[in-house]
Each structure stands twice: as structure tokens, then as C-alpha cells.
Design a protein that fits this description.
The chain is built from five helices and ten strands. It is α+β, with helices and mostly antiparallel strands and about 250 residues long. The two termini are about 20 Å apart. The protein folds into two domains: about 1-100, Alpha-Beta Plaits (2-Layer Sandwich), CATH 3.30.70.580; about 110-245, 2-Layer Sandwich (Alpha-Beta Plaits), CATH 3.30.70.
Length: about 250
């Protein structure tokens, strides 16, 4: 039996989604809880590989229960498994999926949001949940700059050094910056993302705001295909996988 779970989580206490032998991960907690619920070792496959400290407002994973495991009605799974999971991981919905279903290969697009807490004062309640930035950001100017990310491009300049992928070409469907009170939020949707791509995009926008990179430079940075041409890699604290579109 294969189930598809929709969940959300805070990444503060985890070293990403994927199971690691020496670290606490989201998939590790789901594996432990699934074994207790279904009475057998289950295989967990996620729609994405969020990194350490990254959060998810929407995430999908499949749970493959072997024949020796218990069968649980899908509508009862969220309440049952949430009792077995830490408070910072929540399953919202479950349904039966085809055998062998892997949401990673069924994902059409993903949207990430990066939240910057834009006030001079510290706020301890947002620690590890938003990036504190004390200097006033011009969200309208940054929104105009972010539009240059849109399109099909080779995003080599926005990939962490040492990454090993077959292609660095991605299609960005939309990108923009908006303000909600003290929060400045960068949103970007694409058919896929490179390692640290969103965090480097945000760092580049911050460098433009600070005058370290000139306005209108993003097309040039993309064209250079050189990580050194882009801005800093901001911390994972403010990064959220906010929407996942499946086939």
C-alpha cells in the first residue's frame, strides 16, 4: 500500500528532509512514526530535498507500506500519525496513491518564499524563522530587480560551488518582492531549483539594495555563469517551500 501525505514543518531542529545516518531529519521522524503506525518499516520519498534549517508550508511525501504492515484508512492517518510526530511536523492530509508513486517525479513546479524581518529592533520570537535585516529595504525597487530572474536561463551563477547536476538550466515562472508590515518577502516559482539557488537570489537582491551590485545587473550575472558574480548566500532561516504543484 502506498499513501501520499501532505504536511508542513519547521526546519529549525532538523538537518533537512532526507534521512542521514548521523543527524535528525524530517524523513527520519516520518520513518519512525510510520513504523509505529503501520507496524513495519516503511519507505519515505519526498517531493523535494529541503536543506538544514529550511521550512515547508506545503510538502508532499509518499509512504510505502510493505505487505506485512497494517492497513489504515487514509482519512484516519493524519490524526493518528500526528500523535507520533514531534510538534514541529504536521500531516494535514493523506490519500491512497498508486504503488511505486514518488512525488519527486510528479512535481511540476515549486514555489519558495524567503522572509526578511525588516526592522532595526531584534525580535526573539522570529529567531531561525525569518532573516533579521535592520536597514530599510525598498521592496518596490527590489520587485523590479527580481523580475529579471523570470524565464529559462542557465542559473550557474546562483548555484553553490561544488554542486554536481546534469543541467543548470531552470525555468523561473514568476519572481517578486512584496512587503507585509515589517516583513519583506521574496517569492519565486520554477520548474526546479539548484542547490542554494533561492538563497543566492535573495543575497544578490540584498547586495543590490546595499549598492554592492549595481541595479539592473541580474541579466549580466546570469550571462556570466559565475558564482562569484552574484551576491552572498543568505542563511536558511527565512526560507520556506510554500507551494508544490503535482501532476
Amino acid at each position: 500500500m502506498t499513501y501520499l501525505l501532505e504536511l508542513s514543518y519547521s526546519g529549525v531542529n532538523y538537518s533537512g528532509f532526507q534521512i542521514q545516518s548521523n543527524a535528525k531529519t524530517i524523513a527520519g521522524e516520518l520513518t519512525r512514526a510510520s513504523k509505529l503506525l503501520f507496524g513495519a518499516d516503511c519507505k519515505i520519498q519526498g517531493c523535494s530535498r529541503t536543506d538544514a534549517g529550511v521550512h515547508a508550508k506545503q510538502f508532499f511525501c509518499s509512504v510505502h507500506v510493505p505487505e506485512c504492515g497494517n492497513t489504515v484508512p487514509a482519512d484516519r492517518i493524519p490524526a493518528a500519525i500526528n500523535c507520533l510526530l514531534p510538534y514541529d511536523i504536521a500531516v494535514k492530509e493523506a490519500k491512497i496513491a498508486p504503488d511505486g508513486y514518488n512525488p519527486r517525479f510528479e512535481t511540476i513546479s515549486k514555489e519558495y518564499c524567503y522572509i526578511i524581518y525588516n526592522r532595526p529592533e531584534k525580535n526573539p520570537f522570529f529567531h531561525k524563522l525569518k532573516l533579521p535585516y535592520p536597514y530599510r529595504l525598498d521592496e518596490k525597487m527590489l520587485d523590479g530587480q527580481a523580475k529579471d530572474y523570470i524565464g529559462e536561463h542557465d542559473f550557474s551563477s546562483f548555484m553553490a560551488v561544488g554542486s554536481d547536476v546534469s543541467s543548470t538550466v531552470r525555468t523561473v515562472y514568476d519572481a517578486g518582492v512584496r512587503r507585509e508590515g515589517d516583513d519583506v518577502i521574496f517569492s519565486v516559482s520554477a520548474n526546479g531549483f539548484l542547490y542554494n539557488m533561492v538563497r543566492i537570489m535573495v543575497g544578490t537582491l540584498i547586495y543590490i539594495s546595499e549598492g554592492k551590485i549595481e541595479k539592473g545587473a541580474i541579466p549580466r550575472i546570469i550571462e556570466e555563469k559565475n558564482r562569484a558574480a552574484a551576491g552572498m548566500t543568505v542563511p536558511p532561516d527565512g526560507l520556506y517551500l510554500s507551494k508544490v504543484i503535482l501532476k
